[in-house]
Amino acid sequence: MHVNLLGPLEVLREGVLVTPSAPKLRQVISLLVIRANTVVRRDRLVDELWDDDPPASVVTTVQTYIYQLRKQLRLSPLDGGPGQDHGHRPGRLTPALETSPHGYQLKLDTTRVDLTRFEELAVRGRIEASAGDLASASRTFGDAARMWRGPTLVDVPLGPVLQGEVLRLEELRMNVLQQRLEADLQLGRHQELLGELTRLAADQPTNESYQAMLMLALHRSDRRADALRVYQRARIVLADRLGLDPSNRLQWLQQSVLASDPSLDPPARPGSRTVVRAKRPR
């Protein structure tokens, strides 16, 4: 069984899409996949599905949802031990949806969940960046970012439990994107990034990281006046929307652009470890 969470929910068995259509079933399977191979307590499922207003027949209703998922997705109620599922090598975990005294557990080979692959790539990219292998880090972060097909679980109703998971994943997605952009800037790819950074800075005008990276890319492209205009726009937006002054990083960057500070120059060679953050005030 393959499950994709990074965008619209997709559940596939033997290459055939078998995603449940009922909203409550989509919530249940999404939570069980995110917490795969651990017990999801029954009270957490109730919180997710009904928050503070569960029906009188809540236990029976949850049991019915579990029965329907087992039937629609062909999930055994027994232990999902090593077995042969279509597309699996012998020894892979056969999907199963077990009942425990306190809740339910989806036994699943998590290498067949897109979220697992994304998180593995994010970790690998950070390791490569820390080791100074910026070209590999950029490729790895890029591979991770391309796994997303849209907002997480965009077509699944979100209760309080799933909402927390979605916020966590969207934050991780943004972090991976920013790390890829930073790696590319350190590799001297400022001109190639101008279009993407311009869009990101416009879409998220209070995100100071995007404003700073756009300023740096413009400065390195001999567009100092445009870089300073980005700062002025950011200063106005931050004041109007949040009542804040620009961060020390943005203020330092503005002053450095005005002074043509050589620390802002592109790296002398691909893979240089010169970074803007090294000299900015904290």
From TrEMBL:
Question: Which stretches hold the DNA-binding feature?
Answer: 1-108
In alphabetical order, the GO MF annotations are: DNA binding
SMART domains per the UniProt record, alphabetical: BTAD, Trans_reg_C
Region described as Disordered: spans on this chain: 77-99, 261-282
InterPro entries the record matches = AfsR-DnrI-RedD_regulator, BTAD, OmpR/PhoB-type_DNA-bd, Sig_transdc_resp-reg_C-effctor, TPR-like_helical_dom_sf, WH-like_DNA-bd_sf
Q: Which SUPFAM superfamilies match?
A: C-terminal effector domain of the bipartite response regulators (SSF46894), TPR-like (SSF48452)
What Gene3D superfamilies does the entry give? Tetratricopeptide repeat domain (1.25.40.10), Winged helix-like DNA-binding domain superfamily/Winged helix DNA-binding domain (1.10.10.10)
* Membrane keyword on record: no
GO terms classed as biological process: phosphorelay signal transduction system; regulation of DNA-templated transcription
Give the UniProt keywords, A-Z.
DNA-binding, Transcription, Transcription regulation
List each copy of the OmpR/PhoB-type domain by range: 1-108
Q: Which CDD domains does UniProt cross-reference here?
A: BTAD
Pfam families cross-referenced by the UniProt entry: BTAD, Trans_reg_C
- Similarity remark: Belongs to the AfsR/DnrI/RedD regulatory family.
What protein does this entry describe?
Cys-tRNA(Pro) deacylase YbaK
Organism, scientific name: uncultured Pseudonocardia sp
